[in-house]
Amino acid sequence: MENALVLGAGGITGIAWHLGVLTGLRAAGVDLTGAGLVVGTSAGSVTGALITAGLDLDEARRLEARFGDGDPPIEPDWERGSAAFATLTDDSLEPAEIRRTVGRLALEAKVVAEEPYVASLTRRLPRRDWPERPFVIAAVDAGSGEPVAWDRDSGVPLDRAVAASCAVPAVFPPVTVGGRRYMDGGVRSGTNADLAAGCRRIVVLAPLAPVRMHGAPAAEIEALRQGAKVALVAPDEATLAALGPNVFDAGRWEAAIEAGIAQGASPGVAAEVAAVWNS
């Protein structure tokens, strides 16, 4: 594969920022939406589903971000959520142990029921079948802690793959696929950019890179740079202010999009991405 677009985790505001950055880059003459491979993690799985479905960015930005009467409420299990966050940021633990511990907490968490959560996400997707073009979605088995990477050949329905990848522990329920339950791919990595290994040109959009320890793991990015040209784009200070502290704040959708457009169209970001994408 010649090029890959990697879309990282980042909640509702992360999806908005992805779409804004892609729009800004396109305005600057760098269109990433035709990437040969798209890799999506959590929020990135939603953005990836939008662009691989063939939606134009102008249409994709009209996604219904706000929750309405037909959506289940977001009611986190704060106790288990705090424990999960502490585990994810504990450098003394091995990655596999972290994933297993967080998975246990996710399975125990008292949050919204699984099917209403999946239905809420599904109705926002433009299609329920996988696109013909290569699209990979990252998730983690909540029982074993093992990472998974699903595509159209995996036999997993697209809507359940997206819902599983977005299932933030102790915020949303793990999603059942083939008798097992899966949680947010961000538990392994905020980008899972290594799934793009083998591509020659890679652009990574990482909403959580400045604010989460594993938002864009340095080792992951550096490993890719051994065999590919890689551009990593993360929110700048102005964008972070627009995104706010709560990644599920749908009220910041428009502000996050506008901040992303400005950042993507900025000469520095556009030139860096173009130097990779057009090489």
What does this structure look like?
By secondary structure, this protein is α/β, with parallel strands linked by helices. Helix content is 40%, strand content 14%. α8 (218-225) links the parallel β7 (201-205) and β8. It starts with a strand and ends with a helix.
Topology of this protein?
Elements (H helix, E strand, L loop, with lengths): L2 E5 L3 H17 L9 E5 L1 H10 L4 H4 L17 H11 L6 H14 L5 H9 L12 E7 L5 E4 L7 H8 L9 E3 L2 E5 L16 E5 L12 H8 L3 E5 L3 H7 L9 H13 L1 H11 L2
Parallel strand pairs: 1-2, 1-7, 2-3, 7-8
Antiparallel strand pairs: 3-4, 3-6, 5-6
Helix pairs in contact: 1-2, 1-10, 2-7, 4-5, 6-7, 9-10
Order of helices and strands: EHEHHHHHEEHEEEHEHHH
Q: Overall pLDDT, averaged? A: 96
In this structure, how is the largest beta sheet organized? 8 strands, mixed
Q: What is the percentage of strand-forming residues?
A: 5-15%
- Give the low-pLDDT segments: none
What's the β-strand tally?
A: 8
Q: What helical percentage do the residues reach?
A: 40-55%
Distance between the termini: 14 Å
